[in-house]
């Protein structure tokens, strides 16, 4: 099972399109990451009617409303739910590419990496592929959401960790539900597409 999971991740990491989509998903993470810093800075300027950054005139009150209320960068449950929701689109695109082409490609792998896949039982094969998919999903959704949770507590107050500790359980639960649903969907779709066609 573990060699199959490792081989599946290696096949995915060799796609240049994967790294392009990963870079786009990283932009979403950076928007949330630096957005929380901007929100904290604008809140320190709340006493000012307007501030000038270079040639740009900004109104702190309007920007706080935009970042905290509309984009939900306020450390609430909606912050992490929205982040995982937006990242879910990138995850589904990458998984669609992986499910449609990874098994049919013959990439130059070591013989020791190919043999476990060929000799694996169907149950072990599905578990290995599912484990690879689950690791990928959590690396793009759950783990970055936990990083955003820690960042918010470090930027604002240590009380965030004790007062909103339940959000960690919510992030892990949301990530688990997303992982199970997308993994089962990918495996079912891959099995259906690989089903031999019956001649009429």
Structure description:
By secondary structure, the protein is an all-alpha fold. Helix content is 76%, strand content 3%. The chain has a two-stranded antiparallel ribbon with strand order 1-2. The chain starts with a helix and ends in a 7-residue tail after the last helix. The relative contact order is 0.15.
Task: Strand order, main sheet: write it out.
Answer: 1-2
Name the shape in a single word. elongated
- The helicity comes to over 70%
Instruction: State the low-pLDDT regions, or none.
Output: 101-119
Key features?
200 residues, mainly alpha, two-stranded antiparallel ribbon, 9 helices, 76% helix, elongated
Describe the structure in brief.
76% of the residues lie in helices and 3% in strands.
List the helices and strands and how they pair.
Blueprint: H1 2-13, H2 16-44, E1 51-53, E2 56-58, H3 60-70, H4 77-101, H5 111-119, H6 122-140, H7 142-155, H8 159-163, H9 166-193
Antiparallel strand pairs: 1-2
Helix pairs in contact: 1-5, 1-6, 2-3, 2-4, 2-7, 4-6, 4-9, 6-9, 7-9
